Amino acid sequence: MPDDHSLPILPTQLRIARRRLLLSSGVAAGSSLAAVAAFPARALAAGVPAERIPGWLEFLSRTIPDSLDDEAPVALSPREFATLRAVVGRLIPTDDLGPGADEAGVHVFIDRGLAGPNAAHLPLFQALLAALDTGAAGNGFAAATPERQDELLTRLEAGELADAPKGAFALLLEQTRQGMFGDPIYGGNRNFAGWDLMAYPGIKLVWTEADQQIDADVKPLHLSVKQFGGTGW
Amino acid sequence: MTNALPKADVVIIGLGAAGGIAAHVLTQAGVNVVGLEAGPRLGLGDFLANDDEISGMIRYWTGEPKYNHEIPTWRPNANAPTQPPIPPVSMANMVGGTSVHYGTQSWRFRSDDFRTRSTTIARYGNAVIPPTSTLVDWPISYDDLEPYYDRVEYLIGVSGQAGNINGALVDGGNPFESPRSRAFPMPPMRSFGYGELARAAMTSLGYHPFPQPAAIASVPFDDRPACTYCGYCSGFGCWNNSKSSTLVSAIRRAEASGRLEVRPNCRVMRIQSNDRGQVTGVEYLDEQHAPQVQPAGVVILSAYLYENVRLLLLSTSAAYADGLANNSGQVGKNYLSQAYAGRTALFPGKRLNVMSGAGGQAVAMDDLNGDHFDHTGLGFIRGAVIFAGNSELPIGHSRGIAPGVPQWGAVYKRWVHENANSVGSAFAQVEPLPYADVFLDLDPTVKDPLGVPVIRVTLDAKENEIKAARFMDAKLAELLTAMGAAQTWPNFPAGTPLPINTHAYGGTRMGDDPAASVVNRYGLAHEAPNLMILGGSTFPGSSGYNPTETIQAHAWYAAEYLASNLNSIAI
C-alpha cells in the first residue's frame, strides 16, 4: 500500500508528533505535542447541530485557574456552586489518602457539564442543591457541620429529603465519580487526584508485557488527553 | 427543485463494517461506487485527542453526528406504554462506522450457529423451542461463508490462534471452532497477567481456554504498527492505527482503486422506488444540508440495523405503501438483542493492571456456547461464550463497588484506594432467540431533530434467555473464584433486557421464503431485486459470539455475487 494513501487519515503533524513521542519513549509530561485536532470545531463544521454544544468551546479553552477559589461557575449561581462544592467534598472527602472531590475540582466538572452536554440536567441539579440548602437551614449546606452534611446526604440517598427530585442522588453520585476519575481536561481530577487515588497511571500510550503482569507496579504518568491535542467533548 | 446527480453503478448507504467491505469487493471488480456516509471522515489525530473515558464511554462523541439524536424508544410489549428515554449505546457515525471504535472481537460463527433450529430439534425435540420463538436455520451455511471469513481476516488483519485447520485440531486454539482453511494472518494478542489467571482457572475446571480472536495488528500488518495495549480500545478510535477498522483496510483500498467516491456528512433521507418496485436512487442531505438525489443501478443499504429498518419503513412509494420491500410486512420483525451475564470480582492485595490492553485481548472459552454441553433439564437452549479480559477504565472501576460497601464518603474512598486495581471481571455473552413479539417499528410520536420518526423497540426479557443468563452467571462466579477471587458480585441482574444494543440482529431477516423474510441469501430484497441490505439486520438468528466478522464475511459473499451479476441485477 503506497504511503500516500494513508495521508488522509494520518495528519502530518501527528505523524511528526508520534515519531517524537516514540523516540523520546518516555511519554514525559513535558513533551510538547502539537494540538493536532480540535474535534468539536471540526464536528461543528461537519454538521453537528450547534445548539448541542452551547458555549462549550469557550469553557473548554479557558485556562484552569491555579486556585479553585478563582473558579466562577458557568451554569450554576455562585451560591449553588458553593453548595455543590461542599456536597462533592462529602461524597469523596479530603483525608489522609489525599484530596477529596472538592479539592479535585469535581464541582467545576459538574458545572461545566451543566452548561454543555448535560444542560438538560440543570433544573434537576438546581432543585437538588436548593433542597439541600433548605434542609440544612441556617446559612445553608456549605455552612453546616460535616456531620450534618452527611446526615442530609444520607437522607437524599434514601429518597427522604424534602423537595429533592427523584433520581437526583444517583445522577449526582455518577457525575461526582465522572469528575473525580475522568480526564482532568473537563475540570475535575485536578492534579490527577482521582487517578492517583486508584493507582491509575493516566493515559499511557504504551503498556509493555511486564506492565500487564499481576503485581507489576506501574508508575503514574500524569498525562491528560490535553497533552495529545484533546479539547474534551 | 433538486437536480439529480449522474447515475452511479452502485450507491452504498453507510460505510461501516459491512458497507466498507462491499465497497472494497465491488471496486476491485471494476464497479464504480458512491458511498454516502452520515458522519465525518476522521483520522488518527482525532482519535488520540479523544482518548478519554468521558468522551468515549459517557458522552459517546462518535455517535454525536447522528445516532445520539435518534435513539430508539422502547416498550416491553405491544400493550405497554413507551418507557422513559433510555441512554445511548456506543455507535459511531463516521467513515468506517462502528468498526472504527468497536472492541475488535472478531469471531467466526460455527457451523451449528447457522442451523440452530434443526440441530436443537435433532437433539432435544420440538418441545424445547419456546412456543413464540421464530427460530430458523439460515439459508446459508458455514461452508458457504468460510472462504469469505478467510478473505476478511486477511484483508483487514485479524490476530488469533487457530483451533481447527481443515479438520485437524491445533493446540492452544478453540477446539470447538469449525474448520478454517488456514491459520490467522497474525499470532494472537499478547498474553497478560489477568488473562493467565483466567486460563489456568478455566483449565482447572475442565474447560478449553484460548486467546480471543481480535481485529487488531498483534504484529505489524499491512504497513500498520502493532498494538501498544494502551487501554483506550472498545469505544475509541485507534490513535496508533493498529485496529483493523474498515476505514484503514477495506475503504482505504477501495479509495485507492479510484472507483469509490466517499461522500462524508451526507445523511440519506429516503430510498426512491419506481412503479415496478425497483429502487432507482436515494435522496440525501449533503454536507451543506442541501437536498440531493443520487440515482443508482443498485442501492446497498448498510447502515446500522436501526437505520436500515427505519429507512425502509420511511421509504414509502406507490409500489410500497408500508415501506420499501415491506409488502410482506416483514420489515422490523424477528429483532434480537444480545443478552449478557457479567461478574466483578475482588482479588485482595493483587495489582491486576487491567486498566490497560485491547478490547480483543482476552482469554475465552467455548465449552458453554452453542450446544457444546447437554441442555437436558436446564430449561433453556443455546449458550454463551465466556471471556475474561481487560481494557477497563477508571470511571468504570469507580462504580464497581462490592455489595455492602458505602457508595460515598470516607469508607468508599478508602475502598477505591485499596481495591480499584484489584478488581477484575468476566462476562458471558448469551445467544438470544428470535420471537414473534419482539420487533421494531416507527415510533408514532418521537422524532429526531430533522422531524423524522425514530425506531421503537418492542422487547422484553424471555424465559429462555433469563435462565441461560442465570446459568452463566453461576459459572462466572465459579470461574472467578477459581481464579483466586475472594468475593464476586453480578454487574447487573442476569437477564436484564437490553432494548437497544450494539449487538442487535434481525429486522430485515435473510431467508428463502419471501413471505417470512425480507432478503435472500445474497442480501437482495425479495420484493426489490436491485436493493441489497447488509449487516446484522439480515441475521435470521444470532450466536454467543460478537457479530462483526460474520457481518463482514456475508457482505463479501453478497457483494461478490452482485459484482458477478451486476448486469442482470442493476437497472
Biggest sheet overview of chain A: none
User: Could you say which structural class the secondary elements and strand pairing of chain B correspond to?
Assistant: alpha/beta
Structural class of chain A: mainly alpha
Integer-rounded radius of gyration of chain A: 21 Å
Q: How many β strands of chain A by DSSP?
A: 0
Quaternary structure of the protein: heterodimer
Our measurement of the CA-to-CA distance between the termini of chain A, rounded to an integer number of angstroms, reads 34 Å
Radius of gyration of chain B: 23 Å
Instruction: Determine the fraction of residues in helical runs of chain A and give it as a percent range.
Output: 40-55%
Determine the fraction of residues in helical runs of chain B and give it as a percent range: 10-25%
What's the end-to-end separation of chain B, in Å? 24 Å
List the chains of the largest interface with their residue counts: A-B, 72 and 75 residues
CATH class of chain B: Alpha Beta
The CATH homologous superfamily of chain B is named FAD/NAD(P)-binding domain
Could you name the CATH topology of chain B?
FAD/NAD(P)-binding domain
E-strand count of chain B: 20
Low-confidence stretches of chain A: 1-40, 42-49, 51-63
Shape of chain B: globular
Architecture overview:
The complex is a heterodimer of chains A (233) and B (571). Chain A has 233 residues and is mostly helical. Chain A is built from nine helices and no strands. Chain A has helices at 12-24, 39-45, 56-61, 78-91, 106-115, 122-136, 146-157, 168-181, 193-197. Chain A starts with 11 loop residues before the first helix and ends in a 36-residue tail after the last helix. Chain B is α/β, with parallel strands linked by helices and 571 residues long. Chain B is globular, with a radius of gyration of 23 Å. Chain B starts with 7 loop residues before the first strand and ends with a helix. Chains A and B meet through helix 2, helix 7, helix 8 and helix 9 of A and helix 2, helix 3, helix 6, helix 7 and helix 9 of B.
